[in-house]
Automatic annotation (TrEMBL):
Gene3D superfamilies: NAD(P)-binding Rossmann-like Domain. One of its GO terms (cellular component) is cytosol. Keywords: FAD, Flavoprotein, Isomerase. This is UDP-galactopyranose mutase. GO terms for molecular function: flavin adenine dinucleotide binding; UDP-galactopyranose mutase activity. The keyword Flavoprotein applies. Its cofactor is FAD.
């Protein structure tokens, strides 16, 4: 692998069998698999000045390894995803736990046995818990819609408490919506966990943190003799798509193109912008060993920010007398202002706009949109990886 900044003099796209736009999960997975599986010479174009996409981590001035674009918690049910990523990193045994600050009291979320007793008191909380067990059994996640369907005033009380104190204000901050604008189907999915397991992903068989960080994992993934990575290169400067073909450097390109960027931007947003929510992430270094009891504390009933992350707790880094935290302030995404588009706003009119952009490229046999931005959907890291593995399966089969 070579990583360099900018395109070198004499760069010719036709020297490569595949052009990959973006060096995050989707792009890096496809680049690696096609290089080693088909012997493709692969060119990766990355607009930022680093690889790893939003999973990029780096040491701050205090020597703390931070997730620059917000916390990334690895967890998956997919053995295939885990086996692929584990080729490039070992994993720590970190198990993610989240507390919610509810009117000054820290309670586990998803709401569980301990949360009930903290919210309603020992005796009443235990009584409600036994009702939940009788209705649904133990060690199960139950959406609050199912609590309401039982038409039981006690279960309704639990559902209302979780909705008002865990979900409502947090969601209003996250998505910039008023209560009447929040889709009832989303409300109904808010879970209560009937049990004592306080892990955020209790059922995921594979979870942890990469032992040397995400960026190091990506360095290893892209470390192949047939992969060249070019940073600070905006693919739109050399790549265009029309009704007939993909053009790179002014010439029709005959190789494969894996595109992981925003699809609307590829066309200059001529049909309109696909909307996203963004985040203003504010880091603070503190002269103390530890700031909070768990890696993430959600602020569900107060504050303008949604949560505080403390990275040392997640990574297991040992560094005495100093820690770095980060507060997340949700905000609308505004194109051209240096913001990061984090969350696609999945509403019917936005999905229809995406479909119109997608229709422009679906007939092209060598252009392949993949990933969170190119598919206009929210993916966890394992979901992006799975999508890229599926696409690379198709490409490898086509070139077998």
């Amino acid at each position: 692998m070579s990583i360099r900044t900018g395109l070198p003099e004499g760069f010719r796209a036709e020297d490569y069998d595949m052009v990959v736009v973006g060096a995050g999960y989707a792009g890096a997975v496809c680049a690696r698999r096609l290089a080693e599986g088909c012997g493709f010479k692969v060119c990766v174009l990355e607009r930022r000045d680093h690889i790893a996409g939003n999973a990029y981590d780096a040491y701050d001035d205090a020597g703390i390894l931070v997730h620059v674009y917000g916390p990334h918690i690895y967890h998956t049910f997919s053995e295939r995803v885990d086996q692929f990523l584990s080729r490039f990193t070992g994993w720590t045994d970190y198990q993610h736990r989240v507390l919610a600050d509810i009117h000054g009291t820290l309670m586990p979320v998803p709401f569980n046995h301990a949360s009930l007793k903290l919210a309603f008191g020992e005796e009443r909380g235990e009584e409600l818990y036994r009702k939940l067990v009788a209705a649904f059994g133990e060690n199960k996640k139950v959406p609050i819609m199912q609590l309401r369907e039982k038409n039981d005033p006690d279960l309704q009380e639990v559902a209302d408490y979780v909705y008002e104190n865990v979900f409502l204000y947090y969601t209003m901050k996250q998505w910039g919506k008023t209560p009447d604008e929040i889709d009832p189907s989303i409300t109904g999915r808010v879970p209560v966990f009937i049990g004592d397991d306080d892990r955020y992903f209790p059922a995921a068989p594979y979870q942890g943190m990469p032992e040397q960080g995400y960026t190091r994992m990506f360095e290893r993934m892209l470390d192949h003799d047939l992969i060249d990575v070019f940073l600070e290169v905006d693919a739109r400067d050399i790549l265009t798509v029309d009704d007939e073909h993909v053009t790179v450097q002014g010439k029709p390109y005959g190789g494969e193109v894996v595109y992981t960027g925003p699809l609307d931007e590829l066309f200059g947003c001529d049909l309109g912008d696909l909307p996203y929510r963004s985040l203003d992430m504010r880091f603070e270094t503190l002269d103390m060993d530890r700031f909070q009891p768990v890696g993430t504390v959600n602020y569900t009933t107060s504050e303008d920010f949604t949560r505080i992350t403390e990275f040392k707790i997640m990574t297991g880094q040992v560094k005495e007398g100093v820690t770095t935290i980060m507060r997340e302030y949700p905000q609308p995404y505004e194109r051209g202002r240096g913001m990061t588009p984090y969350y696609a706003i999945i509403e019917p009119q936005n999905e229809e706009l995406y479909r119109r952009y997608r229709d422009r490229v679906d007939h092209l046999t060598n252009f392949h949109p993949v990933g969170r931005l190119a598919e206009y959907r929210y993916y966890d890291m394992d979901g992006v990886t799975a999508s890229a593995l599926a696409l690379s399966d198709e490409l490898m089969a086509a070139h077998a």
